[in-house]
Design goal:
Elements: H1 4-49, H2 54-79, H3 85-98, H4 103-118, E1 123-128, E2 136-142, E3 146-150, E4 156-160, E5 164-180, E6 183-198, E7 211-215, H5 218-229
Antiparallel strand pairs: 1-2, 2-3, 3-4, 5-6, 6-7
Helix pairs in contact: 1-2, 1-3, 1-4
Length: 230
């Protein structure tokens, strides 16, 4: 029989598989057709304006459609390594190593996370909607000994609550620049955070937290924080 940790690990890998399928489905159903149509219309218009006849314009439009589909498929291939289920397992094991969890603590983590996933008082599913995100699924879980956020950045964020001397709400003003061909967009937004200060923290309360979890929504952050304070 699998241990609690192994059961939880399989649950998280399944979640990552569903996450990957959602992203790929969006790419195929929305991004691919939109890119193909836009490039097809653009190249068809260029062929027509450039002095070609209708047949030439249609051929260029068809070339644009195939180019758009090809570009989208290349993007999908580029994304696949980051969407593999093994990435979730790697992230979890990395956090376990960072916290130096013993075998008993690892089992405790698995048992508590399995229970939290079934308890709406300890489990919050939401959508990451903000600059640099694409309305992707995410979840926050709070148990007696751990706080866990999946689907954000990094993909796996785990904090052992016994390490924390202080947990507080905070917010940060952020700026993100996104380049898209010749277009450059600058986004200004607020990231709402839960800041964790460990017992070993030697700086002042104004210093950076030892660990943090970020949310684009104040309401989601407040609900996650309330779970930790129960």
């Amino acid at each position: 029989m699998d241990t609690y940790f192994e059961q939880w690990l399989q649950q998280e890998k399944k979640w990552m598989g569903d996450y990957r399928n959602l992203i790929l489905k969006r790419m195929v159903k929305k991004t691919l057709p939109a890119t193909a149509v836009i490039l097809g219309l653009l190249m068809g218009a260029m062929g027509f304006v450039g002095g070609g006849d209708m047949q030439e314009a249609l051929l260029m439009a068809a070339s644009g459609v195939f180019a758009g589909a090809f570009i989208t498929l290349l993007i999908v291939l580029f994304m696949l390594p980051g969407l593999r289920t093994g990435r979730m397992e790697k992230g979890i094991r990395k956090k376990i190593k960072e916290h130096s969890l013993t075998k008993e603590e690892t089992e405790q983590l698995g048992r508590e996370m399995l229970a939290a996933a079934k308890d709406p008082r300890c489990h919050l599913d939401f959508v990451m909607s903000g600059p640099g995100s694409s309305d992707t699924p995410a979840s926050f879980m709070a148990s007696e000994h751990y706080a866990y956020l999946r689907g954000g950045y990094p993909l796996v964020n785990l904090v052992r609550l016994s390490d924390c001397g202080q947990i507080r709400q905070d917010e940060e003003r952020k700026t993100m620049t996104q380049n898209n061909g010749r277009t450059r967009r600058i986004y200004h937004y607020t990231l709402y955070t839960i800041a964790f200060f460990f017992h070993s923290h030697t700086g002042s309360d104004d210093d950076l937290a030892d660990a943090a979890m970020g949310f684009f929504s104040r309401n989601v952050r407040d609900e996650a924080y309330a779970m930790l304070m129960r």
